[in-house]
Amino acid sequence: MLAEIREVVRAAPLFVPRTPRGKPMSVRMTSAGSLGWVSDRGGYRYAPRHPDGLPWPAIPNSVLDIWRQVSAAARMPECCLVNFYDQGARMGLHQDRDEADFTQPVVSISLGDDALFRVGNHSRGGKTRSFWLRSGDVVVMGGDARLTYHGIDRIAPGTSTLLPRGGRINLTMRVVSASDLGDTPAG
Ligand code: MD6
Ligand code: FE
Fold first, then answer.
1. Percentage of the residues of the chain whose pLDDT score is greater than 90
2. How far apart are CA 132 and CA 139, in angstroms?
3. How remote is the CA of residue 79 from the centroid of ligand 2, in Å?
4. Which ligand is located closest to the Cα atom of residue 133?
5. How, if at all, do strands 168-174 and 36-40 pair?
6. Which atom, in ligand 1's list, is nearest to the CA of 170?
7. DSSP classification of residue 162
8. Does the Cβ of 96 fall within 6 Å of ligand 1?
9. Is residue 179 one of the residues assigned to a domain?
10. 41 CA → ligand 1 middle, Å
11. Rounded distance, CA 117 to CA 128, Å?
12. Is residue 181 part of a domain?
């Protein structure tokens, strides 16, 4: 899988996204699939091309295999977001809500150093729970959990030897577009 992710990054180099307010994020990012997630002054959105203008590479088979294993009933993902965290990188609490069909899960795969993952509620505030995501861990956020707030507080450097220069990769697969059948669980 790592070899396939390296090819994705070769075709679609990691970039530093900016929040809609212009603040650079601490993770570096790219995508695979028909749509990639981008963020800049224009807002958070899915786009058919990398900021450099190139189309995104295909989602690697090893990654799609995980999707098939953990979400057999779902549509296939249109985006695999690739996040790279170096030592000091983090990700603030957020919901994944730029997709059209919340009946479809979001599936993530963690590779490399451990990360402290915090999960909250359907709105900001309230109690949260934290746990460590380790290399090889797969998280499925579906059903009632699809819109829970979550984020990464910190990385624990040196906890994995998978990446020669350390750090962490998180892959998140999403179905982005609306279903032809409508947005209902039955559809
Ligand atoms: C991360 N993960 O693990 C950030 N989103 O680096 C996410 O933002 C995420 O793990 C939706 C579903 C699963 C996730
Ligand atoms: Fe997320």
1. 92
2. 11
3. 13
4. 1
5. unpaired
6. 6
7. S
8. yes
9. no
10. 22
11. 10
12. no
Does the beta carbon of 141 lie inside 6 Å of ligand 1? yes
Distance CA 92, CA 66 (A): 26
**The domain that contains 107 carries what CATH number?**
2.60.120.590
Asked whether 187 and 131 are in contact (CB, 8 A), the reply is no
Residue 39 in contact with residue 30, Cβ under 8 Å?
no
Q: Is residue 27 part of a domain?
A: yes
Residue 88 lies in a domain: yes
Q: How many domains does the chain have?
A: 1
36: containing domain: 2-174
What's the Cα-to-Cα distance from 160 to each of 124, 164, 166, rounded to whole Å? 32, 9, 7
Ligand 1: distance of its center to the CA of 29 in Å? Answer: 13
Q: How far, in Å, are 35, 96, 139 from residue 150 at the CA level?
A: 22, 9, 12
- Specify whether the CB–CB gap between 159 and 85 falls below 8 A: no
- The predicted-structure confidence for 16-73, as pLDDT tens digits, reads as follows 999 999 999 999 999 999 999 999 999 999 999 999 999 999 999 999 999 999 997 7
DSSP string, 70-136: H-TTSPPPSEEEEEEE-TT--EEEE----SS-TTS-EEEEEEESEEEEEE--SSSSS--EEEEE-TT
Indicate whether residue 106 lines ligand 1 (CB < 6 A): yes
